[in-house]
Amino acid sequence: MPPSGNGGRSRGGKVRVKTAKRRSAQSTRWLERQLNDPYVAAAKAHGYRSRAAFKLKELDEQFGLLNGVERVVDLGAAPGGWCQVVKQKKPKARVVGMDLLAIEPMAGVDFFQKDITDEDSEALILATLGGPADLVMSDMAANTVGHKQTDHLRTMGLIEVALDMATRLLRPGGNFLAKVLAGGGDGQLTAALRREFTSVKHVKPPASRKGSSEWYVVATGFKGGAAGGSTQD
């Protein structure tokens, strides 16, 4: 169920958008979906930068991901909804975000507009955190090209990069949260997660659109050493 309050609708029925001359049918469908999405309305009512904030809130309620966190990394942080949720629950937590896109400044969040695959990205995050992370989050997805298999492989590649970085940023016992596709991706990724974490679960939070192929992997209990080291055998 979407959050209640000022974000809810006061009357039934859906908003229909007429196709404008300069607007494609795809853009029209997206706009219509946005206007009829209760989570979009709720995000505006609660001051969140995106509806994705409710996904993290729901996952935190289920798994306690933000309990006791002091250092959090948000990969693919724009526009900042997840950072908002972390700071709301843990105002004193050190939060470092990174994304190719810019975001509006946020109190208590150190944000870097750069590619996470840059050679200096990992060291920059670790230095800014001031210690190993308790939680590494990734809501990244590759820009789609319209070919289902290609889009899937590109996004799964980003997840693998995020996981690789997480294994060098997390403290022992730390947690990893990432968006995946179609129920969790291929067996190789799941196997890699299980090698690194004591528990791996795939979840579709209520705020995730039913028609979307996105799921989230929640990996808890990192088995590796301190951040900055290597978990390679």
TrEMBL record:
Biased composition (Basic residues): 11-24
Region described as Disordered: spans on this chain: 1-27
Name of one Pfam family that matches: FtsJ
Active site residues according to the UniProt entry: K179 (proton acceptor)
GO cellular component, one term: cytoplasm
Catalytic activity line of the entry: uridine(2552) in 23S rRNA + S-adenosyl-L-methionine = 2'-O-methyluridine(2552) in 23S rRNA + S-adenosyl-L-homocysteine + H(+)
Biased composition (Gly residues): 1-10
Record-listed S-adenosyl-L-methionine binding positions: G80, W82, D99, D115, D139
Gene Ontology MF terms in the entry: rRNA (uridine-2'-O-)-methyltransferase activity
EC number: 2.1.1.166
Annotated ranges, domain Ribosomal RNA methyltransferase FtsJ: 48-222
Record has Transferase as a keyword: yes
Keywords: Cytoplasm, Methyltransferase, rRNA processing, S-adenosyl-L-methionine, Transferase
UniProt keyword Mitochondrion, yes or no: no
Protein localization: Cytoplasm
HAMAP family: RNA_methyltr_E
Family indicated by similarity: Belongs to the class I-like SAM-binding methyltransferase superfamily. RNA methyltransferase RlmE family.
Protein function: Specifically methylates the uridine in position 2552 of 23S rRNA at the 2'-O position of the ribose in the fully assembled 50S ribosomal subunit.
Record-given protein name: Ribosomal RNA large subunit methyltransferase E
